[in-house]
Design goal:
Elements (H helix, E strand, L loop, with lengths): L1 H32 L6 H32 L8 H24 L7 H13 L4 H22 L3 H44 L9 H18 L3 E8 L2 H27 L5 E6 L2 E7 L3 H18 L8 E8 L7 H17 L5 E3 L2
Parallel strand pairs: 4-5
Antiparallel strand pairs: 1-3, 1-4, 2-3
Helix pairs in contact: 1-2, 1-3, 2-3, 3-4, 3-5, 4-6, 5-6, 8-9
Length: about 350
Amino acid sequence: MAAAIDEDNLRRIRWVALAMPLLNLLFLAALLTATPRTEPRMLHWQESLRPLHMAMAPVFLLLGLGAVWLLRRPAAPAVLRPAWTALSGAAALSFAIAFVAADQRVSGNITTFVLGAILTGVVVVMPPLPSVLLYGAALVAFWIVVGATQPDAVLLLAAQINGTTAAALGWVLGVITWRQALVNKRLTLQLQRAATTDSLTGLLNRMEMVRLVNEELRRGARQGHPTSLLLLDLDHFKKVNDRLGHPGGDLVLQHTAAVLAQSLRAQDRIGRLGGEEFLVLLPQTDAPAARRLAERVRQRLAAALAEHGKVTCSIGFITSETGEETGFDQLYVQADHALYRAKASGRNRCEVAA
């Protein structure tokens, strides 16, 4: 869940951080073309803004490029994503405080800190504890900076009160955004699970299996490795339903799913196509290995399902040739023909596609 939120953070940071240098360039152009102020403190203020914008542009450009790099490298260490998120938030608040320090020379304006706190709370979504540490550190730095740069006691007090309010508001927005992100991710995962799994057995459904098989076949054709499919059907399942009733039949299907999951390898994918028909995807598996796995599955199912009566299965299997370009529909038809031969030959057996 947190990893998905980190991904969303990086996407937002990418766009905000890459857009920020453009704003810096616009402000620099405005400062360079503005009529120079004659009053010393205004002139000093104007000149202090230039290096800030010049420093801010490359820093945010690097933050944006770093976010792009992390998004394109899923294998990068997981700790880098939340660390980059925190670094981006710290950079935004640091520059906001630096601009406040410059503004205190001519006014009590703290608009940049207010905007920075709110923007960080919305863009940089963090858990409550890291977030309160970030905003707490920013608030301490803010108090130190305005205390050192604002000579007017009344403006100083107003800045401290407003700055504390802004930091608190930013943190509250961050917590709200974090909690809402968690809710959204949970709902998304539930929808994805409902769209890709079979509600009775918890296995993948037909649509997801079709997608995975086609994806693996393309990978196999590209990399030159074989891919095998096992098409499995429980024998005389109608009799099982007649004898045990539909709740009993459902229990047999669930037991079948559990035995399949225990009998196959971690990289194999299992799905229920409908009724009592199951499909197993065997990546990087040649025909002899597929036959061995099919026989193991058949034997284990016969032993495990014996408690429900004489329940067995027939299996038709097929292997795509190395580098062969094909698709789910072609392999399924051939595996189905092999399954039909297994049924016609007495059931409780495995047949390879011709």
